[in-house]
Each structure stands twice: as structure tokens, then as C-alpha cells.
Amino acid sequence: MTVIKKALKAKVTPIILVTILVMILFQTRNSSYLSLSNLKNLMHAMSFAGTISIGIAMLMIGGEIDLAAGAEAAFAGVIITLLIEAGVPWPLAIPITIVFGMLCGAVNAVFVNKLNFMSFIATIGIMSVYTGLIRVITQSKNLPISNQGYYKVGSALVFGILPLPFVIMFVLMVAYGLILAFTNFGRSIYMCGGNRQAARLCGINQKKLSTILFLNNGALAAVAGLVLASRMHSGSPTAGDTGALDAITASVLGGVSFMGGAGAMVNCFFGILLLTVFNTGLTTSGLPPYWQIVAQGALLLLALFVDFVNQRSRIRNLERKNAA
Predict the structure, then answer these.
(1) Cα–Cα–Cα angle for 38, 39, 44, nearest 5°?
(2) Residue range 104-124: average pLDDT?
(3) Is 268 within 8 Å of 179 (Cβ atoms)?
């Protein structure tokens, strides 16, 4: 009974229960929703935004945000396409593309930590620049990848069941979850996001930490983009249009505070799972695309409202402790 009580009190429990209920709901509307083939599609679908959400969650916990992450992912997909089609072996093109993603993160860090822009504002502008550059390079058309060996990155199955993109996302989430939970670096991220003044007094170099998080986010966005390009067999200028928004929604759904200082990677995983179940369920239910956009926006607003309530609750508890 004690184990059950602890499980019910865990922060991740409500989102797991909601996810199960949503899956049951869509299964009643479509008997093939929970079929093995559709579950594979679901894992494929959650891998792109899920990989982006790792870097986004780290930034949000640290008190920053990157709204250009989706554009960075799409840019990475185009870059690796150009490299492969130029004759660069795809195993070499992958690390080059990841370095490119880190350079995109470095641009964000310069605006935020050197020029003192708010990350929210800076990355909106950078997103527009990247989106425009992608369309100039591709002329707003998909660039096909002719190297069939590279296709395996986005379509291979592990143990014959699990899509490789999902496995990559899951392994990364576990690794970053351990970093957040058990390292001094992880504790520094929470402190910077939760109380910048206390972090400064503890000797934490906040700008250095922020720069690392932006570089990391750029690298993860590049991983998401190059994996998606492999799956689509092309570099798409529109691949990342909703990537950042989905990643932010999933993170907030999973309990990562938009105000910083709170969240965990396990919650982020179930956040992206709920978002993907919700999105794919709407699609299989035959809901018109424009109503899907309305429903997704409503889900984000609900997640932000829950985050607002939780943030107010944390502030009140802190005030009570200080008063005592």
C-alpha cells in the first residue's frame, strides 16, 4: 500500500493516467489505434519533437528558452542533405551536422549572454532568419537524398520492433535525466532557473552555463533534424515548423516550469507521449486539420495554466517557510 500511495503522489502519475485515458478514448473511436503498426508510427512521430524537447527542457529548467529549435532542426536536415549529395560519406556528415547545430546554439548564446537580449525575443528573430535562409537554399522545395545507406538511420528497427529514432530519443532522455538528477551540473541548472541570485552567490557562472545549454540544444536539434531527414529521404524546409512549439508544449505538459527551476526528464518523456497520442488520435479520428490546430493550441494553454498554478503554489510554500 505504501508503494501505491507514493506512486499516486508522484508528479508524473497524473500525466500517465491522462495519457492512458486518451489512448483508451481514441481506441474506442478507432479499433486499430493501438495496433502494432500504429504504435510504431506513434514512436516515429514522437521521436522528432521528443529529441528537440530534451534540449528545450534543459534550457527551460535553467531559465532560458529557444524558439528557434525547430528551425535549427530543419536547417540541420537541409545541411546533411547537401553534404551527402556533395559526396561526403554519411557517417562523417552526421558529426559535421551536429557541429553545425552547435554553431546555431552559439549564435543564440551570443545574443543572450553577450548582447543581453531576452532569450524569448532573440530566438524569435533568429527563428525567422533561419527559416528564411532555409527557403532561400532549398527554393522552398524538398531536397532528395539519394544515398540509401543513410535511410537506415531513420527507418531501422531495433529488436525488430522499436524504431531507431525512438531508441535514440529514449537513450538521450535517460542520459540527460541522470545528468539532471545526479550531477553538480544538473543541480546548477536547477539553481540558475529557480533563483539566479542564490546561484550567483554560490559562485555559479550563469552565462557560461547558459552558453553550454544553448550549444547542447543546438546539437540535439541537429540530431532531430538529421534523423528526420533520413526518415523522409529528403531535407525539408518545413520540417521544423512546429518542432519548437511541440517541444515546449510537451515539456510544460510534463511539468517543466516555463519560469525555470523545476522539471524532470521522465516527466518530459510522458509529456511528449501525451502530446503525440493526442495529435495522432486527432488525425486518425478524421478531425479536420484546422480543428486539430485549435485543439493543440488549447492543450498548450491548458499546460501553461497548470504551470502557472504550480508556480504560484511553489511561491506560496516558499513564503510560508520564510515566514516560519
Answers:
(1) 95
(2) 91
(3) no
CB 57 within 8 A of CB 261: no
Instruction: State whether the Cα torsion 177-179-181-187 is positive or negative.
Output: negative
Residue 37 exposure: Cα atoms within 13 Å on the Cβ side: 2
Strand intervals (E) in the chain: 143-144, 157-158, 162-163, 234-235
DSSP letter, residue 158: E
Are 187 and 261 in contact by the 8 Å Cβ rule? The answer is: no
- 158's grid cell: 531495433
Bridge partner residues of 158 (DSSP): 162
Does pLDDT of 318 surpass 90? no
The set of cell numbers assigned to 65 is 528558452
* 110 C-beta neighbours (distance < 10 Å), count: 14
CA pair distance 125, 9, nearest whole angstrom: 41
Structural domains in the chain plus CATH codes: 48-282+291-303 (1.10.3470)
Residue 314 to residue 322: CA distance in whole angstroms:
12
Q: What pTM was estimated for this model as a whole?
A: 0.87
As a dihedral over the C-alpha atoms of residue 272, residue 57, residue 229, residue 167, rounded to 10 degrees, the angle is: -60
Place of cell 499546460: 303
Residue 141 DSSP symbol:
S
Give the closest residue to 47 by CA, choosing from 279, 214, 201, 225: 225
User: Which residue has better confidence, 268 or 324?
Assistant: 268
